[in-house]
């Protein structure tokens, strides 16, 4: 009954939707099967949750949606729901004859995209495709899922009911359109674009993958690098030359931006204008930052300042082994339209938090080591904030500015993101540590000893972050009086990212850098997007209006910093 | 009896079952699902229901006969039965289940036992009525007629 990967779905969506029904009641199973078949869906039934999970695992892309009863003998429906959400990321609909609010609430909390009451009616089943479609849209904005967008367009254009792409307007597919309008790019994904593929393989540049990429680049020599050489060195069987080529393009762009920024902003000091990285000074560094060897590691050219940047660019400032460390991934340096990027960021973030552990916080944490662009293990981010992953928030732009002049200060960034908890970790700035700029999220100050963790609690974070960011400049200004060490700069991603986690690189570079956010928590992305745009002149609809003026915020920031223990002058 | 008469009988009988609360709209839904691909759909579903129900009712009885009655267990069985009965539109049966669950919650063993009895009663009543209905259907088909569509 499985049509496998050659689903006819896209031919006449939603017909052919592959549904897995799980219910211990044989009567219901039969009825649902019949009903779904009447909807022209492809149905697979299962009366045991365990069997259902096995089936899902065996055929990873074999189903589009799962419908499950809540009460089952072998496994609680909610548990199944969780598993499916985590492992397969499929939409799950819960069903029960019990419609008590508490149960429905539980379903929603566990991630159900809908909760149906038995007896289930045909009309309710007829519309379940919306959950699949919705997910596709979100996926499409995610990472470089060009295939997804194409699929969506295909679906839409084939369906009589749709108005050829007009259904998804602006925000939704705007990204796609923009993407298409943007340059050609994305050829790297094209080979994997196959309308009939049930789920397009997305090239997600995970921390590890990127690290391999960077290692390869370093090994080859930045000047001599080429996609084929990189690909060969990386030794990732499923990766294609095109994938690498596009990633390399982005990477180069990122680096060049950093460099430009460096040049531009060197004298800027902490002005807060648009958050751009002071030339070359962005980058969070851990105390061991900018070590020549590090630089060498990335094999990039750099000047003193730039080094940092680049260094940062390539690394995630955080220790890979610490759980939850997140580093800002240089994500995909592809150019994507801003909105696209942002959208994707939004989507992406959920699984990956990128927090750059920039600065090496005081080495109390073992950060000194790999600052690489590592993406914090996804699981980390999927966990509730209490986890305290070590994530370092990358404060882009703002930080970079600030850092530029006074690398050694610990800038406290009050990042609060629901996704991650950032531990202030090294709350105590070690000024004397050369180049250790620590950005500790204020919020988590009390928490962890992992300084690098940025605790993000969405709404608060964003605003506070923004403030923080803005104040960054100010704060950093204060840092000026610290002995300038070189560089260790925090690579702060887009300033807009203030709230985000780890988006480094790109501040002024523009939205392109937003690619990086792919790895970021979607919530963060949202925030970031806001802030980013704000910087560019959009408005920050967050509550940090007052933040606009860095000086005004300074008090806030300072206060916070002080509160959290950050010690930076001013 | 000619086909027309049989069909009228069928329609009337079905109507009465609805009127008396034995069946509810869900049954109509089942009838609507029946098509040439599944000409015996309703019959198959109902059969499944009765088979499954036997088991459930027995489980309930066993649980209530225990020295120490595990009300949570009994409730779980009743809940399952409630779900099952809702699948075929067994309206009265479902209502008894609701009452039954209340007694379970109150840990009222007597109330539970009474409900079990009522459940058995309603369940067999429904079973016989549906069997009559199916027989009528078969007679119609045997006489060359078609089953009247339900509203």
Describe the secondary-structure layout.
The complex is a heterodimer of chains A (570) and B (151).
Chain A: E1 18-22, H1 26-38, E2 42-46, H2 49-58, E3 65-69, H3 77-88, E4 92-96, H4 101-109, E5 114-117, H5 122-126, H6 129-140, H7 146-158, H8 171-181, H9 187-190, H10 207-220, H11 227-234, H12 241-265, H13 292-298, H14 304-314, H15 338-349, H16 378-382, H17 398-405, E6 410-413, E7 438-441, H18 458-479, H19 522-535, H20 550-564
Chain B: H1 3-19, H2 25-33, H3 41-65, H4 71-88, H5 91-106, H6 109-142
Helix pairs in contact in B: 1-6, 3-4, 3-6, 4-5, 5-6
Strand order of the largest sheet of chain A: 2-1-3-4-5
In terms of per-residue confidence, which ranges of chain A show pLDDT below 50 for 5 or more consecutive residues?
Answer: 1-9, 162-200, 269-570
- Global outline of chain B: elongated
Please work out how many helical segments of chain A DSSP would assign: 20
Largest interface: A-B, 19 and 24 residues
What's the main sheet of chain B like? none
- Average pLDDT metric of chain B: 91
Helix share, percent of chain A: 40-55%
Q: Got a strand count of chain A?
A: 7
Major β-sheet annotation of chain A: 5 strands, parallel
Q: How many helical stretches of chain B?
A: 6
How many DSSP-defined strands of chain B?
Answer: 0
Distance between the termini of chain B: 24 Å
Describe the structure.
The complex is a heterodimer of chains A (570) and B (151). Chain A has 570 residues and is mainly α. In chain A, 40% of the residues lie in helices and 6% in strands. In chain A, strands 2-1-3-4-5 form a 5-stranded parallel β-sheet, with helices on both faces. Chain A has a two-stranded parallel ribbon with strand order 6-7. In chain A, α8 packs across α15, α10 packs across α11 and α17 runs parallel beside α18. The longest helix of chain A is centred in the middle third of the chain and has 25 residues. Chain B contains 6 helices and no strands. In chain B, α3 runs antiparallel to α6. The relative contact order of chain B is 0.17. At the A-B interface, α1 of A face α2, α3 and α4 of B.
């Amino acid at each position: 009954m499985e049509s496998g990967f050659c689903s006819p779905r896209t031919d006449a969506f939603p017909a052919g939707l592959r549904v897995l029904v799980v219910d211990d009641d044989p009567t219901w199973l039969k009825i649902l099967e019949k009903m779904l078949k009447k909807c022209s869906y492809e149905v697979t039934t299962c009366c045991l949750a365990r069997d259902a999970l096995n089936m899902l695992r065996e055929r990873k892309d074999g189903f589009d949606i799962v419908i499950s009863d809540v009460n089952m003998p072998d496994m609680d429906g909610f548990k199944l729901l969780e598993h499916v959400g985590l492992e397969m990321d499929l939409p799950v609909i819960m069903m029960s004859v019990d419609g008590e609010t508490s149960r429905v609430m539980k379903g929603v909390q566990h991630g159900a995209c809908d909760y149906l009451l038995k007896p289930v009616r045909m009309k309710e089943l007829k519309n379940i495709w919306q959950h699949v479609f919705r997910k596709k849209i979100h996926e499409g904005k995610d990472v470089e899922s060009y295939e997804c967008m194409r699929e969506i367009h295909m679906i839409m254009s084939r369906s009589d009911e749709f108005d050829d792409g007009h259904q998804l307007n602006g925000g939704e597919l705007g990204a796609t359109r923009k993407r298409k309008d943007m340059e050609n790019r994305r050829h790297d994904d094209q080979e994997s674009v196959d309308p009939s593929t049930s789920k397009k393989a997305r090239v997600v540049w995970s921390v590890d993958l990127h690290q391999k990429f960077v290692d390869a680049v370093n090994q080859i020599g930045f000047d001599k690098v080429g996609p084929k050489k990189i690909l060969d060195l990386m030794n990732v069987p499923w990766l294609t030359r095109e994938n690498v080529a596009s990633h390399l393009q982005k990477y180069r762009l990122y680096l060049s931006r950093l460099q430009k920024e460096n040049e531009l902003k060197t004298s800027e000091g902490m002005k807060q204008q648009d958050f751009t990285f002071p030339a070359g000074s962005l980058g969070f560094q851990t105390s061991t930052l900018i070590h020549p060897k590090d630089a060498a590691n990335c094999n990039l050219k750099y000047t003193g300042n730039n080094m940092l940047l680049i260094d940062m660019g390539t690394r995630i400032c955080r220790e890979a082994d610490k759980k939850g460390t997140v580093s800002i991934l240089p994500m995909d340096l592809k150019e994507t339209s801003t909105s696209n990027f942002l959208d994707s960021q939004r989507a992406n973030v959920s699984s990956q938090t990128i927090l750059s552990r920039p600065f090496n916080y005081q080495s109390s944490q073992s950060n000194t080591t790999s600052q690489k662009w590592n993406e914090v293990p996804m699981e980390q981010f999927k966990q509730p904030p209490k986890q305290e992953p070590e994530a370092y928030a990358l404060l882009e732009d703002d930080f970079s500015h600030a850092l530029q002049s006074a690398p050694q200060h610990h800038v406290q960034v009050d990042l609060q993101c629901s996704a991650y908890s950032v531990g202030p970790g090294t709350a105590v700035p070690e000024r004397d540590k050369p180049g250790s700029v620590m950005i500790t999220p204020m919020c988590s100050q009390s928490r962890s000893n992992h300084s690098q963790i940025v605790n993000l609690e969405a709404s608060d974070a964003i605003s506070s972050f923004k403030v923080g960011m803005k104040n960054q400049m100010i704060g950093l200004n204060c840092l000026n009086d610290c002995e300038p060490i070189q560089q260790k700069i925090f690579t702060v991603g887009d300033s807009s990212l203030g709230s985000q986690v780890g988006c480094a690189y790109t501040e002024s570079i523009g939205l392109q850098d937003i690619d990086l956010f792919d790895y970021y928590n979607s919530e963060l992305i949202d925030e970031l997007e806001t802030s980013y745009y704000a910087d560019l002149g959009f408005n920050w609809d967050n509550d940090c209006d007052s933040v606009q003026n860095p000086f005004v915020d300074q008090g806030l920031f300072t206060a916070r910093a002080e509160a959290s223990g950050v010690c930076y002058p001013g | 009896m000619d086909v027309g008469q049989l069909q009228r009988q069928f329609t009337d009988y079905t109507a009465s079952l609805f009127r008396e609360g034995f069946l509810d709209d869900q049954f109509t839904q089942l009838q609507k699902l029946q098509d040439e691909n599944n000409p015996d759909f309703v019959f198959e579903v109902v059969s499944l229901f009765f088979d499954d129900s036997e088991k459930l009712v027995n489980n309930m009885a066993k649980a209530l006969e225990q020295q120490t009655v595990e009300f949570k267990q009994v409730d779980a069985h009743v809940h399952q039965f409630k779900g099952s009965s809702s699948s075929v539109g067994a309206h009265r049966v479902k209502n008894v289940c609701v009452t039954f669950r209340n007694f379970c919650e109150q840990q009222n063993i007597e109330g539970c036992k009474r409900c079990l009895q009522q459940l058995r009663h309603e369940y067999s009543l429904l079973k016989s009525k549906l069997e009559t209905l199916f027989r009528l259907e078969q007679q119609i088909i045997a006489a060359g007629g078609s089953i009247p569509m339900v509203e």
